[in-house]
């Protein structure tokens, strides 16, 4: 992963936290990824809304489908 990948993943994390998902985890330090299936965000209205506000499914996410 590049430093840009890590920066994008961190920005996505900050956006999710700012949009109501306070316990959204930091990205994996080695892969810069988040696992959406594990987080189950699409199952809650708050999680789904935050995903939409933060750009759906950036490349830093794994699992699941695009929110948009």
Question: Can you lay out the helices and strands and say which pair or pack?
Answer:
Layout: H1 3-18, E1 34-35, H2 36-39, H3 45-53, E2 61-62
Parallel strand pairs: 1-2
Which key terms come to mind for this protein?
disordered C terminus, 68 residues
Record the strand order, biggest sheet.
1-2
Describe the main β-sheet briefly.
Answer: 2 strands, parallel
The DSSP helix count reads 3
Mean pLDDT: 81
Provide the structure class: mainly alpha
How are helices and strands ordered from N to C? HEHHE
For the secondary structure, the number of strands is 2
Structural commentary:
- The protein is mostly helical and 68 residues long.
- It is built from 3 helices and 2 strands; from the N terminus they run αβααβ.
- A two-stranded parallel sheet has the order 1-2.
Question: What's the gist of this structure?
Answer:
The chain contains 3 helices and 2 strands.
